[in-house]
Amino acid sequence: MADKEFTFWDHLDELRRVLFRILGVWFVLAIGYFIAMPWLFDHVVMAPCHNDFIFYDLLRSAGEVLHLDDDFFTQKFEVKLININLAAPFFIHMSTAFWMSVVTAAPYLFYEIWRFVSPALYKNERRGVKKALAIGTLMFFLGVLVGYFMVYPLTLRFLSTYQLSSSIENHISLNSYIDNFMMLVLCMGLAFELPMLTWLLSLLGIVDRPFLRKYRRHAIVLLVIIAAVITPTGDPFTLTMVAVPLYLLYELSILMVKEKKDE
Question: What is the 8-class DSSP label of residue 191?
Answer without folding.
Answer: H
